[in-house]
Amino acid sequence: MRIGYYLRLALKSLARTPGLTGLMMCAIGLGIAACIVMLTIYHAMSGNPIWWKNNVLYAVTMDSWSPGEPFDSDRPTLPPPQLNYRDATYLFQSTLAKRKAIMYPIKGVVSGAPDQRHPAPVLTRATTADFFAMFDVPFEYGGAWDAAADRTPGPVVVISREENDRLFGGADSVGRTILWNGHPFRIVGVMGGWWPKPRFYDVINGAFDKPEDVYVPFGWGPALQQLPVGMVACWSDESRSTYTAFLGSECNWIQMWVELPNAASRNRMLALMNAYAVSQRKSGRFQRPLNNRLTRVGEWLTEQGVVTNDSRLLLRLAFAFLAVSLINTAGILLAKFLRAAPTAGVRRALGATRAQIFLQHLIEVAALSLAGSALGLALGALGLRAMHWLYAINTVDNSGYQELTHFDPAGLAWALALAFLSTFAAGLYPAWRIGRMPPASYLKSQ
Amino acid sequence: MSLNVRSLTAALLRRRAGAVLVALQVAIALAIMVNAVYIVHQRVTWIRRPTGIDVAYLFVISSSSLTGGFDARAAVEQDLAYIRSLPDVISATATNSVPFSLGGNIGVWLRPGHQGREFNPSYLIMDSAGLGTLGAHLLAGRNFKPEEIRPPDTADDLGDSVAELIVTRAFARILFPNTSAVGKVVYFENGRPATIVGVTDDLHIARASAPAGDSMAIFPSLPSATAAIDYLVRTGPGERDAVMRDAARHLADSNPDRVINWARPLTFFKWHADAENRNMAICLTVITALLLAITCLGIFGLVTFNVSSRTKQIGTMRAVGARRRDVVAHFMVENAIVLSAGVLFGCTLALAVGYWLSLRYALPRLDLYYLVGGVVALWVIGQLAAWHPARRAASVPPSVATRTA
Question: Which of these three, A237, A262, A291, is where a domain ends?
C-alpha cells in the first residue's frame, strides 16, 4: 500500500494544471451546493416534525359534503379536511381515544398586561385540554387546563413563550390575569419554544406559520359568538344568518386529532365514526358514500400537499445541475489522465500492475472529491443563508419559510456522503480507462 | 489544407469518450436551460400582469373589535368620516379583506335552488366609494347607490343581505358569454337573488392560488366585526406613507372598543402575493446562469487542454503547409461537431423534459421559440468558448513537429 506516495503524486498532478483543477472544484462545488440547498429545504418541508408519534396520532375526517360534488375536484377521493360543529362535538364526547383535541383559529385581542399601552391583536387557537399532551408541547411554567375547563368553558389561557416575553418580560406569569377579547382570563401555563415545521396539526391555515400565541378552551368561540378566522367551507343552502344557525350548519371549520395507542382502538374509533354517519343519514345528512378516515401525520402531510410543486421541481433541477457538473469533471479528468498516459506507461513497464495505476489515479480522484466537497459544503451553507434571506424578505410576519433553511445534522451527513460519492463516481471511469492503457504504445518516442 | 469534416469526425470517434462527455454535458445543459427560461418567463409574466387597480396609491389600515357588542356600523361610519376628511385622501372605503390576500369565494348560480352549474368567484365587500378608491374602471352599468349598501352582517352570510353586485369582465363573460351582464340576476346559496348592476375591467387581485382565477364579484355592504375591518385608502402620489402613519395613529386612540392591527401600503401585499413566483424565478435564473458558466468554462478548459496535449500534431500540420487559420478552423470545426451532436441530442431531451413538465406540473407545453433560441445561444457560446484556445493553437510553431515527444 503506497497511499502516501500516491497522495503526493495526486497533489502534484492537481497542482500541475491549477486552472483545470480550480474549474473542476468549482463545478463540483456549485453542483453540490445547489443540491444541498434544495435537499435541505425539501427535507424540512416534507419532514414529519412529530415522527416519534406517527403511529398513534390521527387526523379525523368525515365526508359530510354535498352529494353533488366532492370537496376537492382535483382530489375527489379525499373527504373535507375539517369537520363541522355538530360532528366535531359529537365525536369529541366519545371516550374511545386516549387523547382527543378539536380546534380552530379565532380572532383575539390581548390587553390588561402591565406596561401595555394599546390592546394587541394575537393569533389565538381555541382547542381542548389534551392538545398540549397530545402534541408534546413543552411548558416553561405551569401546564394545560383540565378537562372541566373545556366544558364550562373556563376563563383560563395558555400563552406562548414569545407572548409571555412580550407581556411579562419572560417572568413566571402563571396565575396572573389578562384580558382576552375584553374578558378576564387566568394564565395556567406558559409554553416553551415550539415551532414544528410544518405545522402539522393545522396545515390548512398556513402550513409553515408560527404556532399561535394564545390558546383558549374550545367553547369560547360559541360563548362569545365569534366566528373562526381560518378556512370555513360550506355547501348547503340553509340560512346562516344567526350564530346558532351557523353552528348547526354544514360548514366545516374544526380540525380534530386523536391519539389511539393501538390498532384495536383505531378500529373502534372508525366504527364509531361510520355508525354515526349512517345514523345521520336518516335526517338527510352524509349523503355521500361513506368516506370517514383516520389519517396518520405522515400521510396527512402528503395528502394535504404541504410540499410545493416548485420545491420538488427545484430539487430535481439541482440534481440535474449536479449531473452536468460531474460530467464536466469526468471529461476534464479523462483528458488529464490520458495526457499523462506516457508516465503511466513507464510505470507499467517498471512493474506496476493495472490495479496500482487504477488506485493511483483513484487517489487523485478522491483528493479532488474531498476538495470539491469541502467547497460545495461551504457554498451550500452560503446558499442556505441566501435562501433564508430570500424567504425572509418575501414572507409575511409569522409565515416561517425561512426556518426551512437551517442546516440539520442529519442533512449535513447526507450532504457529505452525496458530495464525496458522486464526485468519486465521476472519476471512476477516467481512472479505469488510464489503468487499461497498454503501456507499449506510449513507451515509443513520438 | 482542406478541412475534411468526415475525417475530423472519424478522428473524434476514435477517441470518443471525451467528445461524448462534452456532448452529453451540452445536451443536458440545453434541456435544463430552455425549460428553465420558459418557466421564468411564465412566472415573470404572471407577476407583471396588470392588476386593474392603482396599487401604488393605496394603503390599508386593519382594525379588530375588542368587545362582543361592537357596533360595527357606527365605528365604520365614524372612521371613514375621519379618513375622508383628511386633506390628502382622495377616496376611502371599508372592506372585509385586503386585495392580494383575498382568500374566500362565494357560490352563485344562474338559476334559483342550486340548479345548474355553481360559480365560485372571489369577492370583495365595499361601499359606493369602493370602485373609485381602487381605481377600477367601470365598463358597463353603474356603481352602487348609497341606499344599496347593506349594514354589516352579524354572521357574515352575505346572501341574506345584499341584492346587487358588480362583476369583473372575465366573470361576466363566463356567466353570460353572449349578452351584457348588466341587469341579469344571479342566485346565492340560500336561493336569494341579486342583480348585476355593473361590469368592471378585469381585476387580478385575488390570491395567486385562488381557485376562482379571474372571476370576481363586488358586493355592496359594510364589513362586519366578525373578522377584521379593513380601510382601503387612496391618496395622491407621494403622500401615501405620511397619511398612513398619521391616520393609523389617530384611529388607534379614537375608539376604545377597537384596536388597530396594522397599517400597510398595498404594495406590501402585492409583493408578498408574488413571493412564491418571484423566488422560483430567481432560483431558476441563478441555476441557469451557473449552468451556462460551467458549461462554457468546461469547454474552454477542455479545448485548452486538448490544444496543449496535441502540440506535436499541430506542429506537424503547420509543417506540412497548414496556415494559421487552418489550425484555428481545425479546432473550431472539431468543437462544432461535438457541439452539434450535443445540441441535437439536447433538443430531444429538452422537448421530453418540457412534455414531462407540462404533464406533471400542469404547465403549458414548451414554446418552440425557446428551443430554437436555446440551441442558437448554446451553440454560439460553445464556439466562443473554444475560440481563444483555438487561436492559441495557431501560434504553435512548425518546428515542434521535429522534436521528439
Answer: A291
Q: What are the tens digits of pLDDT across the range B263-290?
A: 999 999 998 888 888 989 999 999 999 9
B103 or B344, greater pLDDT: B344
- At A320, the amino acid letter reads A
Q: What is the pLDDT averaged over residues A23-43?
A: 88
Number of Cβ atoms within 10 Å of the Cβ of A280: 17
Give the CA angle between residues A304, A306, A307 to the nearest 5°: 130
Task: Tell me B178's DSSP state.
Answer: S
A126 Cβ under 8 Å from any chain B Cβ: no
Contacts of A126 (CB under 8 A, 6+ apart): A103, A104, A105, A106, A215, A216, A217, A218, A219, A220, A221, A228
Q: Are residues B223 and B184 in the same domain?
A: yes
pLDDT over 50 (residue B1): no
Q: Does B214 share its domain with B285? A: no
A399 by DSSP, 3-state: which? Answer: strand
Are A394 and B295 an interchain contact pair (Cβ–Cβ within 8 Å)?
no
- Is B156 at the interface with chain A, CB within 8 A? yes
Closest to A189 measured CA to CA, from A150, A114, A138: A138
Say if CB A153 and CB A223 are below 8 A apart. yes
Q: What part of A 7-66 touches B (C-beta under 8 Å)?
A: 17, 19-20, 23, 26-27, 30-31, 34
Residues in chain B: 405
Quick one: A257 and A357 in the same domain?
A: no
Domain match, A162 and A80 both: yes
Nearest residue of A to residue B279, measured between CA atoms: A390
Q: Give, for A33, the enclosing helix (H) or strand (E).
A: helix A18-46
**Domain final residue, candidates B227, B256, B285:** B256
Q: Which residues in A lie closer than 8 A to residue B261 (C-beta atoms)?
A: 121
Secondary structure class of A439 (helix, strand, coil)? coil
Give residue A74's identity as a one-letter amino acid code. Answer: D
pLDDT of residue A400: 62
Q: Which amino acid is at B93?
A: T
Cell 497498454 belongs to residue: A438
Which helix (H) or strand (E) segment holds residue B139: the answer is strand B138-141
Within-domain flag for B56? no
Strand partners for A184: A179
Same domain, residue pair A32 and A107: no
Looking at the 3D structure of chain A, how many domains does it have?
A: 2
Please write down the HEC assignment for all residues of A226-274: CCECCCCEECCCCCCCCHHHHHCCCEEEEEEEEECCCHHHHHHHHHHHH
pLDDT in tens, A350-363: 888 888 889 999 99
Angstrom CA distances, A238 to A232, A234, B107, B319, stand at 15, 10, 13, 96
> Could you tell me the three cell numbers for A33?
451546493
Given a contact cutoff of 8 angstroms between Cβ atoms, the answer to whether B312 and B400 are in contact is yes
Nearest to A190 by CA among A166, A163, A211: A163
A190's enclosing H/E stretch is: strand A183-191
Residue A381 lies inside a defined structural domain of this protein: yes
CA distance B144 to B219: 9
Question: Is residue A314 located within the same domain as residue A388?
Answer: yes
Query: Is there a single domain that holds both residue A259 and residue A324?
Result: no
CB contact set of B67 (below 8 Å; sequence gap of 6+): A181, A182, B257
Check the CA dihedral A93-A96-A99-A102 and report its sign: negative
Residue A170, domain extent: 63-291
Contact between A225 and B68 using a beta-carbon 8 Å cutoff: yes
Question: How far, in Å, CA of A295 to CA of A269, rounded?
Answer: 12
- Tally Cβ neighbours within 10 Å of residue B283: 24
List, for residues B365-385, the tens digit of each pLDDT value: 778 888 999 999 999 999 999
